[in-house]
Amino acid sequence: NAGVTQTPKFRVLKTGQSMTLLCAQDMNHEYMYWYRQDPGMGLRLIHYSVGEGTTAKGEVPDGYNVSRLKKQNFLLGLESAAPSQTSVYFCASRQGGYGYTFGSGTRLTVV
Amino acid sequence: AQSVAQPEDQVNVAEGNPLTVKCTYSVSGNPYLFWYVQYPNRGLQFLLKYITGDNLVKGSYGFEAEFNKSQTSFHLKKPSALVSDSALYFCAVRAVGGNKLTFGGGTRVLVKP
């Protein structure tokens, strides 16, 4: 039982490049979330999904897009990366209860 | 909009002394409250949660937290800190019936031998 798996773990992008971060969960959870973590700002919600085929904006959605075509996967896309998107990205999932399971994070640097 | 405040960027405590990490929250309606811990270059680990019932919640590794509705606080406590408790601690809130989990800015705890 792997829980929540994020791919890749590290990435360096040039300004203007695009990429997709993959979050996969094997717990059949309905809800999935993407956060970014920046020093002194905690974790901020980018986008989330309440079920397969649904997405919704969080606190800081600009510059990101998401898709939830399959229940187990939640993709975060950067169409044109900017240095301000340098951050650590965390994915999380939960079922109808209270417990959230977090992935180990993706460290993204945009130069 | 819901929010969480952790007023201290860093807390320093000597090993064996009590540890307190402060958290206040703002949310519409009743809250679910959480504490997470993050060690360097790691993900978030769940410590404890308040859902309903007893205001004193006991969690992992000897930590506990007290929910105070009138003060909208959920302070994390440990009676006797260990050097291995040195880490980054996050408080988080979700409204009952809501979908979004909102985090505070985090408090770095440094326990000195």
How would you describe this protein?
The complex is a heterodimer of chains A (111) and B (113). In chain A, strand 4 (31-38) and strand 5 form a beta hairpin. Chain A is 0% helix and 52% strand. Chain A is an all-beta fold. In chain A, strands 2, 4, 5, 6, 9, 10 and 11 form a seven-stranded mixed sheet that branches. In chain A, strands 1-3-8-7 form a four-stranded antiparallel sheet, with no helix packed on it. Chain A starts with a strand and ends with a strand. Chain A contains no helices and eleven strands. The radius of gyration of chain B is 13 Å and the shape is globular. Chain B is mostly beta strands and 113 residues long. Chain B starts with a strand and ends with a strand. In chain B, the strands form three sheets. In chain B, strands 2, 5, 6, 10, 11 and 12 form a six-stranded mixed sheet that branches. A four-stranded antiparallel sheet of chain B has the order 3-9-8-7, with no helix packed on it. Chain B has strands spanning 3-5, 10-14, 19-21, 24-26, 31-38, 44-50, 56-58, 64-68, 73-78, 87-95, 102-103, 107-112. In chain B, a hairpin with a 5-residue loop joins strand 5 and strand 6 (44-50). Chains A and B meet through strand 4 and strand 5 of A and strand 5, strand 6 and strand 11 of B.
